[in-house]
Amino acid sequence: MGNSDLFAQEKAGINPKRLVDHKIAVVGVAPIINKDVGIHHLTTRQLIAVFTGKIRNWRQVGGRNLAITLINRTQGSGTRMTFEKYGLRDRQSAVAQEQDSSGTVRQIVSSTPGAVSYVSFGYINKTVQPVSIDGVAPTENNVKSNRWKIWSYEHIYTNGQPTGLTKKFLDYLQNDHIQKTLFNKLGYISVKDMQYQRTWRGKLSKGSGVA
Known about the structure:
alpha/beta, D-Maltodextrin-Binding Protein, domain 2, two-stranded parallel ribbon, 12 strands, elongated
């Protein structure tokens, strides 16, 4: 079994033809900023301008007179790829400090005036300010309905159809008790609660994301 928060087709050098995708959960990703900035809402256009370096001070979007400090996840990070694909609409974030840990990102944003980054929902707490985009808040319900579009699946890939203990383990992860309790406690969303499925190309169809 191989864990991924990206579709296999999104990674160069991988032949997905023999892989079987088991969508185990969904994770929402949201921009976060230092609480002293005074910003709670941005438009998509403003978000892209902030992360591509076209806007360099928060007062340009209604915040305090503070220089913007970008914090990125490392290149190849699933969180970063999800944010850039669905939040920045396939734009790349400007070159900036990179961190491998979501916990470290949150700590830097909370303690650095003007800092901005992005984390999965499970890492958002009262030390940072999550940002609504185009009037839509980063909530689980908005992910389920695809009103909040910055989300991805948590995949487990197997080489062919699983059998034996591998199949039993995957069935265990997909049962209602685990989907509705453990995953929710960890900040994930049950695939069974999703009102839409998404393909690796970003296309949507109505229905649960269970594979």
